[in-house]
Amino acid sequence: QVQVQESGPGLVKPSQTLSLTCTVSGDSITSNSVYWNWIRQPPGKGLAWMGAIASSGTTYYSPSLKSRTSISRDTSKNQFTLQLSSVTPEDTGVYYCARGGGISWYDYWGQGTQVTVSS
Question: Could you identify which of 17, 35, 80, 111 might form a hypothetical disulfide with 73, taking C-beta atoms 3.0 to 4.6 angstroms apart as the criterion?
Fold first, then answer.
């Protein structure tokens, strides 16, 4: 059974960099044709795809966040990481990691982690 689990700080100050880690079990992040995604949901709004890292290591980013987003991986730990720089209160929300066959559909989700940007 594939499991993905987000971890990271729940509170980040404005202008700082948010860093979240997704730990994967039951599958390898280097498995062929698999994409590992970050998705977020601001309060009262819908889900928004942020970016992904493919099994090849290629990264993909939402155009609206590309300048502030970096996704990397640690294959030895079977983890991938999201960094979002220069955060503002508008970056507050629940952040999810998810496995998918691409960047638009997902089959395994983490439970989500609440991130609040506030001074």
Answer: 80
Per residue in 12-27, pLDDT tens?
999 999 999 999 999 9
Tokens of 89: 């209160």
pLDDT digits (tens, 9 = 90+) for 64-76: 999 999 999 999 9
CB contact set of 90 (below 8 Å; sequence gap of 6+): 42, 117
Write b or e for each residue in 84-109: b if 16 or more Cβ atoms lie within 10 A of its Cβ, otherwise e: beebeeebbbbbbbbbbeebeebebb
* Structure tokens given for 108: 């395994």
Cβ pair 55, 32 in contact under 8 A: yes
Residues 111, 90: Cα–Cα separation, whole Å: 21
Structure-token match 């948010």, residue found = 18
